[in-house]
Write a structure and sequence with these properties.
Blueprint: E1 6-10, H1 16-25, E2 28-33, H2 40-43, E3 49-53, E4 68-74, H3 83-93, E5 94-105, H4 124-127, H5 130-137, H6 153-162, E6 165-174, H7 179-184, H8 186-189, H9 194-198, E7 199-208
Parallel strand pairs: 1-2, 1-4, 2-3, 4-5
Antiparallel strand pairs: 5-7, 6-7
Length: about 210
């Protein structure tokens, strides 16, 4: 139900999703990201695309409240340093009958380090210190992608309810659970709920709870 809607994409980066929403679904899209990309001038030439360099969690965007039919975000929320503040901004910007689609990586998952290409073991961010991760991966600087926030899904649920959202659709992505590696590192990994360790990503559609 996206056709013709006014959409905000949070963390648009190079604008692939923004462009697809405009060309395939006739949407008017505002894309926001903390860093402008070198293709923004070309992309922004489309009258139905507006691109903003701003931090959504700090509210430095000059967007009007209750002005979007849909808000979408694809694997961005784990990199936001103030995730609750960002969700609170979505609450303000979304129309009363609007919907928010959120797809995010969870911190306790095996792949949350974003270093699976350099380190074969799962959960290095839980079992190793940053110094050990650097040594194991041969990376001098781990970069912004490694320093993800530590939200659990349970904390997301608390935030949603506190802001008046309820979930109308929910989906989890769980990959192969390395039981052998888990048992070898049970002293550390056993401190976390097994469901958290197994669940890499979640997707939800949020709407406002008009009954409460």
């Amino acid at each position: 139900d996206m056709r013709g809607k006014r959409v905000l994409e949070i963390g648009c980066q190079y604008g692939d999703t923004t462009k697809a929403l405009v060309e395939k679904y006739d949407c008017e899209v505002v894309g926001i990201d903390t860093m402008a990309q070198n293709n923004w001038d070309e992309l922004g030439a489309n009258p139905n695309i507006t691109l903003l360099e701003a931090d959504i969690s700090k509210g430095h965007h000059k967007l009007l409240e209750n002005s979007f039919d849909r808000i979408v975000s694809f694997v961005v929320w784990e990199h936001i340093r103030h995730p609750y503040s960002a969700l609170a901004q979505c609450q303000k910007l979304l129309k009363p009958d609007g919907k928010k689609w959120l797809y995010a990586n969870l911190y306790r998952s095996a792949v949350a380090s974003h270093l699976t290409w350099a380190i074969p073991e799962p959960w290095p961010h839980l079992t190793m210190s940053p110094a050990e991760v650097k040594e194991k991966s041969n990376i001098k600087e781990l970069g912004w992608y490694y320093w993800v926030n530590k939200l659990t899904y349970q904390q997301y649920l608390f935030y949603f309810r506190h802001l008046g959202f309820y979930i109308t659709w929910e989906y989890f992505i769980q990959k192969f659970f390395d039981e052998k590696y888990y048992m070898e590192n049970e002293k550390v990994l056993g401190l976390y709920p097994e469901w958290d360790l197994k669940t890499d990503f979640f997707q939800v559609v949020l709407e406002f709870d008009h009954e409460h």
